[in-house]
Amino acid sequence: MNFSLTFYPVILLVLTFVWAFLEDVCDQNDYECQHPNDITVMGHLENRKCHISNILRRIRQTTLLTCVKECFITSQCTAINYRKNWSLCDVVGEITDSALVEEDGCSFSKISTWPNSFAGVCTNHNCAAGQKCVKVDNGLYTCITVYCDEELPDIYDAVSIETFGLYRNLGAGNKFKCNDGFVLVGRPFVICTDYGKWKMLFYCIKQALFPPRDCDDIPHHYGSGVYSIYPTTSAKFDVYCEMDTDDGDWTIKEKQFSFAYIVLPILIETTYQIEQVIQRRLDGSTDFYRGWAAYQDGFGNLTLEFWLGDSLTYHTGNMFSTHDRDNDKAANHNCAGIYKGAWWYKSCHYSNLNGPYLPPGQISSYANGIIWETWKGYYYSLKSTKLMIKKV
Ligand SMILES: [Ca+2]
């Protein structure tokens, strides 16, 4: 009865040998060469066909079989493209007839024609869209994010220059170029960020409007976000442009001013006049008590919380001060140090929007929170602020 114990290892050795032999003859990525009879048994390939849209993932330097496996373990995958000469695998989501086109060197295959044993422990996984299933110890699996769930955002006035079309890999960028008559500002990519959301790194602007001096010059259809502007010919800034008009209580002001953006205090005083002073503080997650260099460069996550300047009547004409650069008019004090902020202090302030983020509401200390004196007085620290300015 010990027969089977010795017999099976022999069979395994033979199989291993045959496999290795074919690998020697055929290119290691060439499954069809290695397994001339297998391919029709295991899955159905439609040669010279490729599905050119809805590519969830693109995997380079991979074999056909790995491509099939990656499809099985990737949520929403229904088919693959495989380009043998490029060793390039597309994991394809929903299929549409119109997107299946002729392409030399490409093979298309519906995943339903393959045995799902390829997926191993990941067979019947329930990973969410944007994820793939990964085997872990003890016969279990886990899900990790591998592509952007959403389709690419609308890209205006530009065309893709990706050789094989757009894809959604996490961390990868799709390359574009602007149409004739437009100039590209930024880097020519739309990237799938590591948290699975798209981010545009560029926009296209009409030649006549380049370089854009402010948010007004930037095409509105791109929506609110961070953009590069050139307030002077030599200065470039990344700023937050507010393109939307519905923002709760600020609707009227938003309409009145249309756009808001961050500029440096020095710049504000020379180039712009500030019409409305509300600067963006949301939740205290950003430290605003910083030195001169930080304020000169700007800081913070532009889309979450950032600082802006102001020119209240009282503060007009005063220089910007930080704790390490006292430009205020108080001869015996350092206003920035006393009120823990950075501002156009005189001696000292009626507003202190870069002051420390305190629990919103009444405060016991004098004037050292986020203060807007003419609205709430010196013993009230604001919850959130947002500064909006416009060109005059
Ligand atoms: Ca002083």
TrEMBL record:
PANTHER family recorded: ANGIOPOIETIN-RELATED PROTEIN 3-LIKE, FIBRINOGEN/TENASCIN/ANGIOPOEITIN
One family name in Pfam for this protein: Sushi
Positions of the Sushi domain: 146-206
PROSITE patterns reported for this sequence: FIBRINOGEN_C_1 (PS00514), FIBRINOGEN_C_2 (PS51406), SUSHI (PS50923)
Protein origin, superkingdom: Eukaryota
Keyword terms, alphabetized: Disulfide bond, Signal, Sushi
Listed SMART domains: FBG (SM00186)
Official protein name in the record: Fibrinogen C-terminal domain-containing protein
Assigned GO CC terms: extracellular space
Range of residues in the leader sequence: 1-20
Record NCBIfam families: GGGWT_bact
InterPro entries: Fibrinogen-like_C, Fibrinogen_a/b/g_C_1, Fibrinogen_a/b/g_C_dom, Fibrinogen_C-term_domain, Fibrinogen_CS, Sushi/SCR/CCP_sf, Sushi_SCR_CCP_dom
